[in-house]
Automatic annotation (TrEMBL):
Gene3D superfamilies: Luciferase-like domain. It comes from the Bacteria. InterPro entries: Bact_Lucif_Oxidored (IPR050766), CmoO-like (IPR019949), Luciferase-like_dom (IPR011251), Luciferase-like_sf (IPR036661). PANTHER family: LUCIFERASE-LIKE MONOOXYGENASE. SUPFAM superfamilies: Bacterial luciferase-like (SSF51679). This is Luciferase-like monooxygenase. It holds the Pfam family Bac_luciferase. Residues 16-301 form the Luciferase-like domain. To bacterial alkanal monooxygenase alpha and beta chains. Signal peptide: none annotated. GO terms for molecular function: oxidoreductase activity, acting on paired donors, with incorporation or reduction of molecular oxygen. GO terms for cellular component: cytosol.
Length: 336
């Protein structure tokens, strides 16, 4: 059956045990090319810092690399953690990407730090400013709308003659939904790690929405975590890498992504098992039919326009297989 919504991917550039970091970086290119071939709509990279299992610390570099190796796929950030950066730098970086790959770039923005407190201090994140202030500055740089008396009104954004790509606001609690609607940008909800029901956030976004040139109508996206394999049993076995990784991360232990064999040998503390028991209800794990039915139910409950899938597996080949199985079961037309 054909999906009643667009399907897209998020890549965290995971670094698996037994794999070098350069190999993990090369895998981002292979996955982008496979996503393009399979017919997915877009591919986004998250921004994370200080995590030995994740290589996506600088999304714009990965975006440029993936865009250069694909032809049809929209490539973007999911998202740039805006408080980590001067808004002018983000305006310059994403105008540059838009100029290099016109009509194929997305700018997703998040308010979270993308790392722990130590990483935030190393990045000098926030500087005491509010996210809304940073967002307003970013949009003012792009629109050249600072009032004449503002000191930034004398700062031209380079490269000129290019506008920022379509902007999305990322949320996990609904707090930013109305703001995204009022700004007339896209809204993406992180249902892959948030237990907050997404439907009320989408309703608030649609209610507040003001049309813009980039978004003449509301555009909603829900991100979900998926592990798909030919059978429910295999998918459940493979997903244990993600489960143990999450439990270790949430209890202060960090390491590269373990194989399922290695993960099953880990002796978990009661606290770590509790983390898995709590979080696993959000993960969609199973055969293509199981995954399809679960995604359809979640998407229908929130009436979303697009579903973005993120998959964490130790084997890069099996991760690509998972995305291929999902594309096939939803009837996505391959691009050849």
């Amino acid at each position: 059956m054909a999906a009643p919504f667009a399907l897209s991917l998020q890549d965290l550039a995971p670094i698996a045990e037994g794999t070098s970091t350069p190999q993990a970086m090369q895998e981002t290119i292979l996955l982008a090319q496979e996503a393009d071939r399979l017919g997915y709509t877009r591919l986004w990279y998250a921004e994370h810092h200080g995590m030995p299992s994740i290589a996506s610390s600088v999304p714009e570099i990965l975006i440029g690399s993936a865009a250069a190796h694909t032809k049809n796929l929209r490539i973007g950030s999911g998202g740039v953690m805006l408080l980590n950066h001067a808004p002018l730098r983000i305006a310059e970086a994403y105008r540059t990407l838009e100029g290099l790959f016109p009509g194929r770039i997305d700018l997703g923005l998040g308010r979270a730090p993308g790392g722990d407190g130590y990483a935030m201090r190393a990045l000098r994140s926030g500087g005491g400013e509010e996210f809304s202030t940073y967002l307003a500055e970013l949009m003012a740089f792009d629109e050249d709308s600072f009032p004449p008396e503002h000191p930034y009104s004398r700062v031209p954004v380079s490269p000129g003659g290019i506008r920022l790509p379509p902007m999305w606001l990322l949320g996990s609690s609904g707090a930013s939904a109305s703001a995204a609607g009022q700004l007339g940008i896209g809204y993406a909800f992180a249902a892959h790690f948030s237990h907050t029901p997404p439907a009320p956030a989408f309703e608030a976004y649609r209610y507040a929405f003001q049309a813009t040139g980039a978004f003449p109508k509301p555009q909603t996206m829900m991100c979900v975590s998926v592990v798909c394999a030919p059978t429910d049993e295999e998918a459940k076995y493979l997903s244990y890498s993600q489960a143990v990784q999450w439990a270790l991360f949430m209890t202060g232990e960090q390491r590269r992504l373990m194989s399922p064999e290695g993960a099953h040998k880990v002796v978990l503390t009661p606290q770590q098992q509790g983390v898995i028991d709590h979080q696993s209800s959000l993960w969609i794990v199973g055969s293509p039919e199981t995954v399809r039915d679960t995604i359809l139910a979640k998407a229908e409950a929130s009436d979303v326009d697009e579903v973005m899938i993120t998959t964490t597996l130790h084997s890069y080949g099996l991760r690509r297989r998972s995305y291929g199985l999902v594309a096939k079961v939803f009837g996505i037309e391959p691009r050849g």
